[in-house]
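Amino Acid Chain and Its Fold in Token Form
===========================================
Scope: a single protein chain, as residues and as a discrete description of its fold.
Amino acid sequence: labelled as such and written in the usual single-letter residue code.
Position: the record begins directly beneath this header, with no further notes in between.
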Amino acid sequence: MAKNAKQAPSALDDPEYRRGIVELLGLLAYGEISACERLVADAQMAPDLRAKVEVAAMAAAEFGHFEQLRDRLAELGEDPFEAMAPFEEIFARFHAKTKPSDFLEGLVKAYVGDSLASDFYREVAAYLDPETREIVVETMSGTGHSEFVVDQVRSAIEADHRVAGRLALWGRRLMGEALSQAQNVVAERDALSAVIVGGADTPGLDLAAIGRMLTRITEAHTGRMESLGLSA
């Protein structure tokens, strides 16, 4: 490429869009390190060494996702920790309201609760610039330990059928709190809200599209609950 060739314009050249993307990456990065921290704590409740190692591996996967988001913020010339800081209180509220009382509740939260967020941000990614879309999809891909979680929960239900009712209620609570916190995030962060509603050079999410997206997320949640042997 010739030295004097002009660089193709980027969506991130728009200051408002860039601010929204930095907020989005900061939100996701804090979510990943928060999930890692929570899983480390959950591992202490594991009933045996195998379960402890599986949950530790899930935590390691979350940390790997955090590193990708942190590095992308640094590439953009942003301080990753400054970008993450505004979301500390939001996640603190969510985790305070959804603190698991035992190992099984922790597993359901990791499998169902985190997947709700992942589904939402993967949907939003369709309206982002290609580079941001790629990292959002990649880091919201899950930890790859769903089989372990499903086996643990189903085995517990087989041993004591009363577990199913308690965990089903817990799953509904997670769904409600996740939706509530998502609404709070959008309400509190104008630039982030603008990116979610409509990314650079995209039509964004109109009311009909939002309705269809929520239907897909709800259906995916129902499917995950059913895979655990629980009613949504």
Remarks:
- The radius of gyration is 19 Å.
- Residues 1-5 have pLDDT under 50 and may be disordered.
- The chain has one domain: 15-227.
